[in-house]
Amino acid sequence: MNDRLLSSTVDEAVSSRLSGLLTEDTRPGYSGYLVAPENLLEAVQILRDELGFDYLSSVTGVDYLEEDRLETVYHFYRSTGGSGLVLKSSCSRENGRIPSLTPIYPGAEFQEREAWDLLGIRFEGHPDLRRILMWEGFDGHPLRKDWREPYFEEEAKPFKSRWPDGKAVRSEEKTPFGDNVCFPPDFDPQTWQAEPETVIERLQQDEKPLADEEIQTDRIVVNLGPQHPSTHGVFRMTVMLDGETIVSLKPVMGYLHRNHEKIAERNTFLQNMPFTDRLDYLASMSNNFGYAIAVEKLMGVTPPERAEYIRVIMAELTRISSHIMTTGFLLNDLGAFFTPALYALEERELILDIFEMVSGSRMMCNYFRFGGVVRDIPEDVLGRIRQLVTDRLPRKIDELDSYLTNNEIVKTRCQGVGVLTDVQAIAYSAAGPILRASGVPYDVRRADPYSIYDRFDFDVAVQTHGDVYDRYLVRLQEMRESLKILRQALRDIPGGPVLAGKPQYQVRVPAGEAYGRVEGPKGELGFYVVSNGKPNPYRYHVRAPSFINLTSLETMCMHQKVADAVVVLGSVDIILGEVDR
Amino acid sequence: MNPSPESIQNQDYQIPVELRQQVTITTLDRIYNWGRRNSMWPMMFGLACCAIEMICTAASRYDFSRFGMEVMRASPRQADVMIVSGTVTKKMVPQIVRLYNQMGEPKYVIAMGACASGGGPFKEGYNVVSGIDKFVPVDVYIPGCPPTPQALLNGLITLQKKVDHETIKSARWYRSDPVPEIPVPILGPDLIDVRRIEAIRQTIQTLADEAGNRPQEGEA
Ligand code: SF4
């Protein structure tokens, strides 16, 4: 890599090296560069190989119905840290095609499938462009602006039929089919044939046989899920086995696809806050954080000091509760059924009590607002947090450490299992503990600090082997670092207001786009929000870390035993609400 | 009714004090229901956020084993009650119906949370089923998003009360005619409820007719 280019600012580097390929995005409120589809691959190759943007954080699309085009949006970062680069490329809505980035960034695979599924952007050269969240044979691409769901009422909330007069009608009574369904006019249920599932074919195509195969054995296909005790929800893995060894694996998801993005584009900005709680439902405060940051960027407000501290305290408590739960449930996957998880849940309950005291709800906190938080922390709660942070949690984390870290069985089952190298981890856009366990010290709190994280003294947890055991170690260390941050935050928290301006139900968000990202417990959680000045977001996209971390699942599980696939999945730490959204 | 045998004792008969823990005189219905209600094993099956609260209810702080939900079973064959804990999506509902069909009688269903009861916050979504009761009969609905563990416990106790009032004579699983299975819905262009195929076909026909008539009306 060229040092001079790396040290210069992004804009200079881009203009000197890519001036012929890119044009600046000059729409008001927008940033980044536009590139023609035919130049995309060339430009991206230079970005990665010469300018060091080796981490493709997010791929998504926007449907600009009025301009009759679909626009793909890419967010690139450097795995060494720093701010990012946004690239956009557009194609027509009918039959538009965009070259796939999978040859350069394998981590684009699932994200491009999602953009195809929901927006109908065709990615040329994609190895496996199937629907991912909806099922094969579903009619239409739901995130297109002219696609309407069966319960469609109006383009945007608040619906005139319900506000301010408040008439409630059961949605079922308004649809011709009397239910949340809609069929195309040429559909005849009597003669219709279901499309066969293609996943088995894909398994056969992508099979990677064992090298030292002496005896030819028959392959068997095993389905784990969607109802399976170790898939952490309604996730499905189809695996092809040679004996007990995995030779091919395809995740199937979408069983919890709750149409978060479509609903969010009808909601007002503030109405989305409680919906973000339900993404990663073990870490609702972190989700609030990311969304608040994205919208605050657009609105140009900064929260008052006290609110920033409260936010950090809540986000770090969330991280501890999420990591401790993951660790407990990893043991579940190793076969130590439920007892270790009980230890984890005990500590989580104490943190949930705090959440309940500050926000009124144990899990779905809905606590952040644009420009602050909804209400102040009562003084006695701060005392409880202090007690937890200085006394109880450090003891319990040490206890966990002493039970597990040198445990024979944990070591044998976890070391060397599910390995992802640093190069692979970056290429697959892995994030969070997965990335750091593979030896890449990338933590958004440090690499691209948001809120007030630049004030705290903490280390980025990192390990080198990239196996299940190292992911466990990273989580353990991260809990300790979170405690460190918490102690500093509790020491320094000032008094004062907790919300900039007065509380509002309807916020004014100027037109433009913003990408807000935070380091959630599962990794980089990003929110891409496009506003056109109306009370509702025009486009709302979530860069879900657990979803993108699954892109590398097949690589991690390849040639491992099937029982280990369960452990690897446990170490990836997926939450289906976030995977499927 | 608590698990002790005294709770089902018929008060018309006197049992000597020293035998009260071992001997009881009661009706067949009562002892049958007493056995079932105190060993309601839920199926280990979580759909969404509500499942996390279900796990918390199973864990040490709330501990639903105290009420007889001793263990969760991953196999539908070994479970008595299916707690539908979360958003039911169209993609998932065929599996849920299949699991329900695979459960052995007597079986019960609890709809936990707003989503399972009626669609909840995500009701308007294109992939969301407006409540599991569109497909599977529900015994107890628990409001909340998510319901707290206390609310889930209350729901389970409500189910036990329901069991107390059942009688062996009219139990559907002892009738000679087989209990019909619920047809598994199919994923087509949208979710197809097999029981309503004829209605769907007619509605499509009506819509097509209306669409065909409309331009002519305009001309006239
Ligand atoms: S009712 Fe609420 S908490 Fe429960 S699954 Fe639905 S959204 Fe999640």
Describe the structure concisely for a colleague.
The complex is a heterodimer of chains A (581) and B (220). Chain A is built from 20 helices and 15 strands. Chain A has helices at residues 3-7, 10-18, 37-49, 109-119, 199-205, 260-266, 272-277, 284-299, 305-334, 339-359, 379-404, 408-414, 422-427, 433-437, 444-447, 468-492, 545-549, 553-557, 562-572, 576-580; strands at residues 22-24, 33-35, 55-64, 69-77, 85-92, 97-99, 122-124, 219-224, 236-242, 245-252, 368-369, 372-373, 512-520, 523-531, 537-543.
How would you describe this protein?
The complex is a heterodimer of chains A (581) and B (220). Chain A is of the alpha+beta class and 581 residues long. Chain A has helices spanning 3-7, 10-18, 37-49, 109-119, 199-205, 260-266, 272-277, 284-299, 305-334, 339-359, 379-404, 408-414, 422-427, 433-437, 444-447, 468-492, 545-549, 553-557, 562-572, 576-580, and strands spanning 22-24, 33-35, 55-64, 69-77, 85-92, 97-99, 122-124, 219-224, 236-242, 245-252, 368-369, 372-373, 512-520, 523-531, 537-543. Chain A folds into 2 domains: 3-124, Beta Polymerase, domain 2 (2-Layer Sandwich), CATH 3.30.460; 281-498 and 509-579, Cytochrome-c3 Hydrogenase, chain B. The longest helix of chain A is centred in the middle third of the chain and has 30 residues, at 305-334. The model of chain A is unreliable at 1-7 (pLDDT under 50). Chain B has 220 residues and is mainly alpha-helical. Among the domains of chain B are: 42-155, Rossmann fold (3-Layer(aba) Sandwich); 185-214, no CATH class. In chain B, 34% of the residues lie in helices and 8% in strands. Chain B contains 6 helices and 5 strands, in the order ααβαβαβαββα. In chain B, helix 1 packs antiparallel against helix 5 (149-164) and helix 2 (49-58) crosses helix 5 (149-164). In chain B, 41% of the residues are buried. Iron/sulfur cluster binds at residues 48-50, 86-87, 113-115, 120-121, 145-146 of chain B.
